[in-house]
Amino acid sequence: MNCRSSGLTDRGMLRNVNQDNLFVDPDGRLFIVADGMGGHAGGQEASRIATEVLSEVILNNWDSDEPSDDLLKAAIHKANEAILEDQDRHPERAEMGTTIVLVLCRAGEWWQAHVGDSRLYRSRDWQLQQLTRDHTWVARAVEAGDLSLEQARTHPWRHVLMQCLGRRDLELVEIYRLNLQPGDRLLLCSDGLTEELSDGELTHHLSQLRSATELDEVVEQLVQSAKDRGGRDNITVVLVALDSEDAACDDQDAELDDEPSEGMSDATLSMGHNL
Predict the structure, then answer these.
(1) Which of 1.10.10.10, 3.40.1380.10, 3.90.226.10, 3.60.40.10 is the CATH number of 3-261?
(2) Rounded Cα gap, residues 52 and 45, in angstroms
(3) CB of 268 within 8 A of CB of 8?
(4) CA 38, 98, 234, 200 torsion: positive or negative?
């Protein structure tokens, strides 16, 4: 299958350091965004550990017989353990943690996994759909009917995470099998993007993406637009585009009511790659 990808991470306009990390596999098999928290050194370290351990475990076991959902669970568990071990060795980082959102294509199937409030969107026929559920207090309150969506957007607790890597009580890990069709685009991002840009604005930017060769330009536009709106947090964006002539990887839809598998301004640009 032929696809291209591009990723960019930026510290934004107000933060002194960038606590986000990303991983874009040169062979286009795996894409990760991680948003660290817990102080400057802690957040940076947690997101770095997460992206390194996840990519190493997944890619080193790529040719194993282990099903992809089990491989994802094992990798996430090991990343969480690695962060906890670092906390034990460095008490000054005891409160560090990180969100993660990732996508992989293995054995002809696309999968997503996430913990926290970094998001995955799918753009299809210029319609944007959020494929992840935020693991936050306000998202849970909206699901329970205690808050409206409008109230949630400005609630002072909207950044309070119910789950992240770096916690001994890690329980909520959501893993779904994805359906992708020719021409689909995937957007992985930290909340530094979605805090500044609405879904309508994200759709507008993605509508500029008329071909996969324009990925780098659109990624840069998304990050710059978030900075122009204030750039209050670190901003990380990864775009993955399936060329329109390509065949879909899977035959099951990844709607949010599907049953998940549960288990447990410095800038870096990762350029597009062909498979």
Answers:
(1) 3.60.40.10
(2) 10
(3) yes
(4) negative
How many whole angstroms separate alpha carbon 60 and alpha carbon 72?
A: 12
- Give the three-state DSSP class for 39: coil
Where the chain has pLDDT below 50, the residues are 246-275
Backbone phi, psi, residue 61, to 5°: -110, 20
| Domain parsing of the chain, residue ranges | 3-261
Contacts of 170 (CB under 8 A, 6+ apart): 77, 80, 115, 163, 264
Q: From 242, 200, 237, select the one nearest 216 (Cα to Cα).
A: 237
pLDDT at 208: 83
pLDDT of residue 157: 64
Q: Which residues, 6+ apart, have CB-to-CB distance to 206 below 8 Å? A: 123, 126, 128, 185, 187, 218
Single pTM value for the model:
0.87
**pLDDT for residue 80:** 97
